[in-house]
Amino acid sequence: MKAVALTHYLPVENPDAFLDVDLPKPTATGRDLLVAVKAVSVNPVDTKVRAPKDKVEETPRVIGYDASGVVEAVGPDVTLFKVGDEVFYAGDITRPGTNQQFHLVDERIVGFKPKSLGFAESAALPLTTITAYEAFFDRLGIDREGADKGESVLIIGAGGGVGSIAIQLAKAAGLVVIATASRPETTAWVKQLGADHVVNHREDMVAQVRALGFQHVDHIAIFNDMHHWQTAVELIRPQGGIVSIDDTDLPMPMDGMKMKAASLHWEFMFARAMHQTPDMIEQHRLLSYVASEIDAGRIRTTLDTVLSPINAENMRKAHALIETGQAKGKIVVEGF
């Protein structure tokens, strides 16, 4: 089968950063699905895994953590899917990635693809959707059904892949969304997605948020990096919660959090699959829920750019776009 792989961890401009290779077709066992991959999307985690380092792979390594496709075969213990089902999912960082023609994935982290979307549009969604959903509803404890309607959330880094779906999930839950963006195109993007207010994260966010009439906000999601930690601590309400997806070596003073009895949560969407947690199937459920919300017209895909076909050249292009830090929405590579 065709695959895009790496053997050396190189700068993205190096022609050998990715290689077109031919690999054996995997066989489904246990609770695995064998998925014929139709489209994949590229996330910042892909670029972090591929980032230059001295390590060399003895055999080609396939990465990639988002896909949509069709179930080709099922393992003997599969109960949720059958051959021919159209699916989307974000995979497992401890296993071979999605940048290959046929991919094995545990059914418990797979959702039924939205019926109203094509494969490219669907591939844009899983990793960022799981991350945003878990950040809000599992980590911060916001009620998905609207019991916290009217509460405020500040989404820092709202124009990126996670932020783009997070805005929509927050609005669907009835929250007042304050989104950050720093460029005209990302400001327009977050407004299209439903943000109630937009502030510039390259300027004084505390002053901007308070000028909107919010002394504090009820929830804060940090979806870019922890350079805004002190701002988040200043703005979070007493007994409020902050969630972050960024691992950091930056100082994170906690005195302000303690004085407010505020909580800090980490979101890592691979944790359930990596640790085989008892509630691993929740990712299947949440993806299928979001698919139904999309088909009902309440949430839209966050796809921005499509490259085709899935090959080493286009994978390098997609990684280069992500590494600019200027991408809005999601970048998808479609079709072998």
Which secondary-structure class do the elements indicate?
alpha/beta
Domain module tally: 2
Please tell me the overall pLDDT: 96
CATH architectural arrangement of the largest domain: Alpha-Beta Complex
Biggest pleated sheet: 7 strands, mixed
Written as H for each helix and E for each strand, in order along the chain, the element string is EEEHEEEEEHHEHEHEHEHEHEHHEHE
Which CATH class of the largest domain applies here?
Alpha Beta
- The name of the CATH superfamily of the largest domain reads Medium-chain alcohol dehydrogenases, catalytic domain
Fold and architecture overview:
There is one protein chain. The protein folds into 2 domains: 2-125 and 271-334, Quinone Oxidoreductase, Chain A, domain 1 (Alpha-Beta Complex), CATH 3.90.180.10; 129-266, 3-Layer(aba) Sandwich (Rossmann fold). The protein has 11 helices and 16 strands. It has helices spanning 44-50, 119-123, 126-139, 161-172, 184-192, 205-211, 229-235, 255-260, 271-275, 282-295, 312-323, and strands at 2-9, 19-22, 32-42, 53-61, 67-74, 86-89, 102-106, 110-112, 152-156, 176-180, 197-199, 217-222, 236-244, 263-266, 303-307, 330-334. The protein is globular, with a radius of gyration of 20 Å. The mean pLDDT is 96. Belongs to the zinc-containing alcohol dehydrogenase family. Quinone oxidoreductase subfamily. This is Zinc-type alcohol dehydrogenase-like protein. It comes from Hoeflea algicola.
